[in-house]
Amino acid sequence: MTIKEMEAQIDRLGLEKLEVRLFKGRDVDIFICAIKNDEGTELEEDGLHRGNIIVFDGNGRCWETGPYALWGKGDDYDVTWGINEYGQNVPVGINKYALERMPQRDLDPIRD
User: Fold this and answer.
1) Cα–Cα distance between 16 and 49 in angstroms, integer?
2) How far apart are CA 42 and CA 47, in angstroms?
3) C-alpha to C-alpha distance for 15 and 52, rounded to whole angstroms
4) How far apart are the first and last CA of the chain?
5) Domain residue ranges in the chain
6) Is the pLDDT of residue 22 over 80?
7) CA dihedral in degrees (111, 17, 82, 106; nearest 10)?
8) Which of 20, 57, 72, 109 has the highest CB neighbour number within 10 Å of its CB?
């Protein structure tokens, strides 16, 4: 998927966009977003938030952390990759937080 295709859906979901990594041309390798936990406001003066970090792969498939991951805009995001049961290279962690597959949050493929 392209950045434009993914951004439109991510905006509708109300997610905080953190980082996009491109594969080739305008095709997305991964799109990193977050859901801010409203209870974690005590860290906002440092530009840090608690909440789910969400990783979409270039096909719009979703993985996310638990709700108490610490993140901030402009942070460096270190994605750890692994092989799933189908032999696919998939994200398994981000900044030492485990990622869980969340198919209910997958983005819809854009069809011409």
Assistant:
1) 11
2) 10
3) 10
4) 12
5) 3-105
6) yes
7) -40
8) 57
Determine the Cα angle at 92 with ends 68 and 45, to 5°.
30
Alpha carbon distance 14, 51 (integer Å): 13
SS3 93: strand
Q: Which two tokens stand for residue 75?
A: 């942070």
How are beta strands 79-83 and 62-64 bridged, if at all? Answer: unpaired
Place of tokens 């969340």: 102
**Which tokens in the block code for residue 106?**
């997958």
The percentage of residues in the chain with a pLDDT greater than 90, rounded to a whole number, is: 65
The beta strand positions in the chain, using DSSP E, are 16-24, 27-36, 48-57, 62-64, 69-72, 79-83, 89-94, 97-98, 100-101
